[in-house]
Amino acid sequence: MQKQQLHEALDVILNEIGEATPQLILIQGMLAHFQNSTDFKTECHEVARLLEIELL
Fold this sequence. Notes:
3 helices, 61% helix, single chain, mainly alpha, globular
């Protein structure tokens, strides 16, 4: 995945987390973009744990 796409996915996650009622399904989908990168594996698991969502 290209660096720009990861930045866009991260922007969506951050914007959604800032909402009064975040759409967890949207965050879950955006986290899927990071699943193939070992660099972000720990962070993805932590975000999923904090938001109580399952990683796809």
